[in-house]
């Protein structure tokens, strides 16, 4: 029996990571500051995003994105955010944390939000659109961006899969969003153990978010008014903030991973090209449309098949363990009261498979997965 092939296996540069973590431990500094500051700087320099604040997770970032926009723009409870049903629940939970209402629009052949469906879902209470670049694919983000600009809506980019996605035109994903949120969870494209980054377009919101991630504590007001170093315990607390900031151990892991991210993503793209070739013309195996002109991070390689659950079981029996990204969130009890039907998302939810994709896969293993998929689908 061949070795099992798993969906995701994170690759850490163990010696380099341990060396970077050792620096934290020897210095006696594992928390906020030090490596977190360095990682924010390096991430900004690499992506050319104007601001970046390091967090404990992307889920925390999505919550803060809506919290700060709601506060700054004076949104009210019950105001609406148009979002996708085909995502990890973090995206939509963030809307509910802030008392806002998720309104699900349908996806297109990229499995990202369809701009025409977004437009149909707009109401006088719509305040924002939450776009998810599924698998690192920008889909028709540019059209959604233009629609938001036309209608005066905020655009929040859930870029959890988009670390290293370069858009058509050469800017990094998030460059023209009001806020973008990246995940550095272990299976994402820039793996730490758990962390994320929130990147606001506006400096004021970047300043503000730094208080919210540390329980609402504002040290600046006192460091400005008192001479440096004195009365360190004298800070102001401005809001009911959260403990959401990232720490130096995670930042140390992130700094190492960032050095390899572009090469890693290039390797993902070449594995995807092997899948494309090996699955070309396979009857009953549908593809997902990739946005033209971009350089995608390729967090996922997705296909669509009828009878997905049985196909998954048959692949498992051959030692191949794909995944599903995602089940339509309106199948979950807490999201079932969706006002608009999303038939394409529902169909994709029943058919989509994420084939194994990670840096330890060989091209031979990718061919083995593709051959098994062809065989299983043809035998049905
Ligand atoms: C992983 C993921 C998140 C959450 O990221 P965490 O860092 O684990 O909180 C949010 N949205 C999507 C689409 C994700 O895949």
What features would you describe in this structure?
Helix 6 (141-151) links the parallel strand 5 and strand 6 (154-158). A seven-stranded mixed sheet has the order 2-8-7-6-5-3-4, sandwiched between helices. The protein has helices at residues 14-27, 35-47, 58-73, 89-97, 115-121, 141-151, 203-212, 220-225, 248-279, 308-317, 343-351, 363-378; strands at residues 5-6, 53-55, 80-83, 101-104, 126-132, 154-158, 179-183, 196-200, 217-218, 236-237, 301-304, 320-321, 352-355. It has 380 residues and is of the alpha/beta class. The model has no long low-confidence stretch (mean pLDDT 96). It folds into two domains: 14-258, 3-Layer(aba) Sandwich (Aspartate Aminotransferase, domain 2), CATH 3.40.640.10; 261-379, Alpha-Beta Complex (Aspartate Aminotransferase, domain 1), CATH 3.90.1150.10. Helix 2 (35-47) runs parallel beside helix 9 (248-279). The protein has twelve helices and 13 strands. Helices cover 40% and strands 13% of the residues.
Gist?
40% of the residues lie in helices and 13% in strands.
